[in-house]
Amino acid sequence: MKVSVSLYASLAAHLPEGCSGNVCTLDLREGTSIQELLDALNIAHDEPKIMFLNGVHAHLEDIIEEGDRFAVFPPIAGG
């Protein structure tokens, strides 16, 4: 199944080769959880701070479905 994955700031380095910018369309097996996707992208458990699935706050145990849009933001400091 095809899903859109957006990784922001320092997390963008975890996208596979061939992706442009911070967005990539990935082919996942049905039933993949957010945790499994993050593991496949080699993103450490403490790196994601905010996650959205189709624009709604997401949790690690949420299951990704065909056509979903997933976005992850790391902790960001600023002022």
Question: Can you tag this structure with a few keywords?
Answer:
mainly beta; globular; 5-stranded mixed sheet; 28% strand
Protein architecture, described:
The structure is a single chain. The chain is mostly beta strands. The protein is 9% helix and 28% strand. It has one helix at residues 34-40, and strands at residues 2-7, 23-27, 50-53, 56-57, 69-73. A five-stranded mixed sheet has the order 2-1-5-3-4, with no helix packed on it. A hairpin with a 2-residue loop joins strand 3 (50-53) and strand 4. It is globular, with a radius of gyration of 12 Å. The mean pLDDT is 93.
Break the fold down into its secondary structure elements and pairings.
Layout: E1 2-7, E2 23-27, H1 34-40, E3 50-53, E4 56-57, E5 69-73
Parallel strand pairs: 1-5
Antiparallel strand pairs: 1-2, 3-4, 3-5
In short:
This protein has 79 residues and is mainly β. The chain contains one helix and five strands; from the N terminus they run ββαβββ.
Largest sheet: 5 strands, mixed
> What does the average pLDDT come to?
93
Distance linking N and C termini:
40 Å
SSE order in H/E notation?
A: EEHEEE
Class based on secondary structure composition and strand pairing:
mainly beta
Question: Radius of gyration over alpha carbons?
Answer: 12 Å
Lateral arrangement of strands in the main beta sheet: 2-1-5-3-4
Instruction: Give the overall shape.
Output: globular
